[in-house]
Amino acid sequence: MKICSFGETLIDFTPVGVSENGNIIFERNPGGAPANLAAAAVKHGVEACFVGEVGDDIFGQFLQEKLRNQGVDTEYMIVNSRYKTTLAFVQLDEKGERSFCFYRNPGADTMIESQAVNLRAIDECDLFHYGSVSMTHNPARITTFELVKYAQQKGKILSFDPNLRMPLWNSEEEARHEIRHGLQFCDILKVAEDELIFLTGCETLEEGARQLAKKYKTPLILITEGEKGSHALIHGYYINAPTFPVSVVDTTGAGDGFLGCFLASFLKSGKTLEQLNGDDVYQMLRLANASGALSVTRKGGMPSLVTTEEAQALLDSQSES
Prior knowledge:
With about 325 residues, the chain is an alpha/beta fold. Helix content is about 35%, strand content about 25%. It has 10 helices and 14 strands.
């Protein structure tokens, strides 16, 4: 059981306090949703490789080292000496919700070309995961869709997380167009509440999910709604799964932890998407909710990811109370 996660890895500079001079202190953390997802999947018991491009600089070296330390296969990562590794400065509000300021014009992740990618990374995997951040600029956009189509031809399960970062797009119209193009290929779609509204304009999450499922024939749609839990649409059934009350410190990476846990649980089940039933999906959502909930109690993206045992312990404690 192996996931191949394609896209960006970057440095998240996360606020960790204030200096004696009253200035914000930032900590260097490994980040990027596809990289976070690969690390989360490993923590939940499946193999994962990451395919992406970094600069030949201290940040690119740091990211490779951190991914390897997480148990992620970095054999297929690409180092480009012509461009710098992308940086993102994270701002947190009083509720722990984050916003980003990117330094990426261009970043090495946007310059990845398909001929530089070793397709063995896809050949060896069971599931290919992609996002929309790699779709914001060429040549990465072209590369993304070429790899997606290759994975589809090879019969791989395709997972897509739009992970909308509006500051990286030229316009809302461009973002919708490219993300909707990405929706044409995926078997599993994970969207946050605001992303679903952005793509469909629907007033309710269920209505939006059903609209996407009908238009794109997506077998499984997952929706995260923060403290309200998560939802899924499979075989026409709409499922709600509550989350867990926690003290929020930093929401960075929570969705990646959620999805990495869910995908790992799905692969470990040994079932196909057609064989999954509502109870299967509900149990996977609950564990994924626990994984996401615990991650928001810690700072950083990748450093906040938890193991199956930690998530299960939270799930069990709630079941007993």
